């Protein structure tokens, strides 16, 4: 198991946001965590990347194992640099006044493997040809969809081998959304493990191998993507009947 979240309880101040969730991600998988607004999806990602309180949640019970070792005492920068776990936040978290290329370059700041960095630049531009076309353009002038691509590209450039994506479909027109998911599928076929959080359950379950449904801080259903798509409760609540 690459990632194992075990009976995790977290709080913001006195308010409990996750009430004992458990899930796993195996190497090479695409796993999705689906749920409505406020279900606790981003909280889960911020707990794994160890964003410290007060912005980040505080763990009150449970454990997070990565490659079999507990990471609950690992500092956020070490999660990225040593464990090679990256978070691709919603696209608006890029540096708007820098070019596409500068944003990608900045994500490599802690790396010393220069040859591999060049390989990764090519990988990002092969996955997202639009980013190559716009590499000299200031990022604030990119469309919402292109900014999402840049966010994913930045995660790759950290040298990660496990990427967690916060709603990559957010704000994308349907065609761009499919482009994005095709790129993620391609990335996965190259060996990248992905944890995808999505409100758009339909597209997430189409692309993921397995999924979990998060509802107000608790996991209420899980299974392989096909099973979940055919689960009557999931259909009713998340797939529009
Ligand atoms: P969305 O899709 O709307 O982002 P989500 O599933 O990602 O939803 P979270 O953002 O994880 O949900 O929020 C879960 C709960 O925790 C919500 O009730 C939210 O108000 C609360 N919460 C999130 N971040 C904080 C914070 N920094 N401080 C206090 N409460 C927070």
From TrEMBL:
Pfam families: ABC_tran. SUPFAM superfamilies: P-loop containing nucleoside triphosphate hydrolases. The keyword Nucleotide-binding applies. GO terms for molecular function: ATP binding; ATP hydrolysis activity; branched-chain amino acid transmembrane transporter activity. Gene3D superfamilies: P-loop containing nucleotide triphosphate hydrolases. The keyword Hydrolase does not apply. CDD domains: ABC_TM1139_LivF_branched (cd03224). GO terms for biological process: L-amino acid transport. Keywords: Amino-acid transport, ATP-binding, Nucleotide-binding, Transport. Residues 3-241 form the ABC transporter domain. Belongs to the ABC transporter superfamily. This is ABC transporter related. It comes from Desulfomicrobium baculatum (strain DSM 4028 / VKM B-1378 / X).
